[in-house]
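Exercise 7. Predict the structure of TetR/AcrR family transcriptional regulator from Tahibacter harae.
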Amino acid sequence: MVSVTRRTGARGKDRRLAVEDKLQQAMERLLEQGHSFTQVSVEQLAAEADIARATFYLHFRDKGELVARLMARVTEEVVGATRAASPQTRSRSELRRMIKAVVDVYRRHYAVMAAIVETAAYDAQVEQLFRQMMDTLIGVNRRLQQQMKQAGQPRTPPLVADVVTWAFERSCHQLVRNRKPAQVNALVDALTHVVWNAMYVPQDGGDAD
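Solution. The predicted structure, encoded as tokens:
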């Protein structure tokens, strides 16, 4: 017998995604209004998302499962934005476009990302989820670093991928909120400079355009 507490099949997946969208937007609105990440209740989320409390529990066991899924979705968006990077990326302008796309993801989801970082300092479950997200992103840059090495790019110290990933996250956490377009562009330029010189500089040391 199919459980009434979980949707299955394509239709069920579509419904779950629709509910996720509503709940993610509701969570971001509540956080932007100054509510605490850990204190936001299922009842508040359901009311803000304009869904029944019972609908929430049709798709998620508890708020922790929702938080894990929201973090996974943000991670997926960030990884998707990095797909332009490859050992064949020889142009700073190409790299800048990719970095701008990643920064835009952070900007769209800043409220959730900031709350996760702050909550991770005292909530072990959220800290674990945050670490898993960062490990995923570090893994992307480690694979890129290895691919570039195999493609003949200059050697870089082993921890460069880790440092670049954490520097990127910290920069977005500190420098994207309430910034004007010109300030965001300045951040993108700075990140492009750092990542290019750390991972993409051609063997002759010049800057390719």
